[in-house]
Amino acid sequence: MATIQAIEARSVHQIQSGQVIVDLCSVAKELVENSLDAGATTIEVRFKNNGLDLIEVQDNGTGISPENYENVALKHYTSKLSSFDDLSSLHTFGFRGEALSSLCALAEFHVITAQANQVPRANRLDFETSGKLRRTQIVAGQKGTTASVEGIFKRLPVRRRELEKNIKREYGKVLNLLHAYACISAGVKFSVRNTVGKTKNVVVFSTNGNRTTKENIANVYGAKTLTALIPLDLELEFEPSAPMRRASGGDTQSNQLVVKGHISRPVFGEGRQTPDRQMFFVNSRPCGLPQIAKAFNEVYKSFNVSQSPFIFADFQMDTNAYDVNVSPDKRTILLHDAGALIESLKASLVQLFEAADQTVPQSQV
Ligand code: ADP
Ligand code: MG
User: Fold this and answer.
1) C-beta 80 within 6 A of ligand 1
2) Fewer CB within 10 Å, N or C, the chain?
3) Boundaries of each DNA mismatch repair protein S5 domain copy (predicted)?
């Protein structure tokens, strides 16, 4: 029989990193979230060759302090969480301390960073594949951080080939994700650029650092989009389902949450041909909520059979009411008592759409 032995540390790192950074979207998501966590008000995302050659995110956030250089890309080193107990009251996007270490394992990764008191000097940090700091160099730079990822998945050849084959589709998905971050981030000036072949540095989309998500939506999708939208402003209250009541030891406190955002009027001509512009957030964190999306689309179709709505919906709720720590890439969010929530959501949407004929479109507010 073969001997049971530990996998060598390097291989474990590779295996785990491939679960944190699963695709192009994960790269953009992790870097943009780090910029937002660093309090940035300007974020520029740059792609070369749709991200195959380079994905780079530059921000004007706090920068990284020199005493943290050694630890910044080490696995499970984070400035955002120190114990499991903190997880339920989390207000940052990151907390697992895995993104940068994973990028070191999967690509050529470096950072240029400066805190306010260092400018016009910045430091370029290069790392080993393990995430260990290889060297620091003084370079010129502004306040903030630029993280650069070159040749993503070059150390996972199968995934690299898959990505090359599907790059158009993958790039499209990244843009959709960045639309969501740009729209939800009021007060942050976002811009996205891409260089493909000789067409240099084309601005793909940008926002102006607006105060409202509505203005961000106008920047990203065009001002005309707003004419078909009505405000989404729901207060949901629902009794916990029987299993949840049992799990909480008979405590029958009702759940409350609000849903804020914008949605198409349920009138023919005001929806969209395909469900391509639907963004969901939990406490401003972009996430996929497939069951919730299904509920929205079902109710909308009962008013406008042949179209799908534009949806921008932020579920604002107690941080105890969900779990983001379900998968290493943090894209799956587990909502406690989703069934009861969805029933309540559907009923509220029906009311909203029934009243929508009297609702003034957002463009006229
Ligand atoms: P996490 O975000 O879960 O903490 P990361 O691997 O994404 O883990 O980042 C590790 C640490 O590096 C962060 O906790 C933060 O202190 C620092 N960091 C990463 N990106 C930035 C940035 N853009 N600006 C400032 N600090 C950053
Ligand atoms: Mg992070």
Assistant:
1) yes
2) N
3) 217-354
Beta pairing, strands 229-238 & 133-140: unpaired
Q: Is 10 exposed, middle or buried (0-12, 13-18, 19+ CB in 10 A)?
A: exposed
CA 92 to ligand 1: nearest atom: 2
pTM of the model: 0.92
In tens digits, the chain (365 residues) has pLDDT values of 788 888 888 888 888 888 888 899 999 999 999 999 999 999 999 999 999 999 999 999 999 999 999 999 988 888 876 666 666 666 788 777 889 999 999 999 999 999 999 999 999 999 999 999 999 999 999 999 999 999 999 989 999 999 999 999 999 999 999 999 999 999 999 999 999 987 777 999 999 999 999 999 999 999 999 999 999 999 998 887 766 666 666 665 678 899 999 999 998 888 888 888 999 999 999 998 999 999 999 999 999 999 999 999 999 988 888 887 677 666 778 888 889 999 999 999 999 999 986 555 555 54
Asked if 352 contacts 234 with a C-beta cutoff of 8 angstroms, the reply is yes
| Radius of gyration from C-alpha coordinates of the chain | 22
Among protein residues, the one with the nearest Cα to ligand 1's atom 19 is 34
Q: Is 314 in the pocket of ligand 1 (CB under 6 A)?
A: no
What domains are defined for the chain? 9-216 (3.30.565.10), 222-364 (3.30.230.10)
Residue whose entry in the numeric block shows the structure tokens 């003034």: 360
Residue 242: CB atoms within 10 A of its CB come to 9
